[in-house]
Amino acid sequence: xxxxxYPGSFDPIHNGHIDVIERAARIFDRVIVALANNDAKTPCxxxxxxxxxxxxxxxxxxxxxxxxxxxxxxxxxxKRGAGVIVRGLRAVSDFEYEFQMALMNRxxxxxxxxxxxxxSEDHTFISSRLVKEVAxxxxxxxxxxxxxxxxxxxxxxx
Length: 158
Ligand code: PNS
Description:
This protein has one domain: HUPs (Rossmann fold, 3-Layer(aba) Sandwich). The radius of gyration is 15 Å and the shape is globular. α4 links the parallel β4 (84-88) and β5 (113-117). The chain has 6 helices and 5 strands. By secondary structure, the chain is an alpha/beta fold. 4'-phosphopantetheine is lined by residues 7-9, 36, 39, 69, 72-73, 101, 104-105.
């Protein structure tokens, strides 16, 4: 069985993430969406808030599950029997960071491949940071996040 891990902070999950998960779910038998709990960044939403938003957004995907990522991603992937780490690539600006992470992960655990997926062009400009900024300033985020995430953004930021 081909198992892939899609890790991230998902602060919050947006349509670009969901697009990548949908593509991964068509390619791999099982996709584990691993929500980082010990990221260096300080998230806007608590771990529990992010987890609930992710789970609700993914409830219709039969072969996708959500889990907690703590510790090194490569150790987590090994523990879960995943052979692949999925990451989304939106633009050239993502490349340097993603390339560095892929090579670090290869050095740490060479049998696991990083697999890059490109979301639809409708979603390539969406990021959690920009979605939060637009929401905080009263802009319309309807086409960037699912309705339940929009509600949480408004509750948290307005
Ligand atoms: O969505 P993000 O914030 O770009 O996700 C970053 C994430 C969670 C994938 C990355 O920080 C990560 O892998 N964290 C787990 C700790 C780890 O393994 N760090 C070394 C990565 S090379």
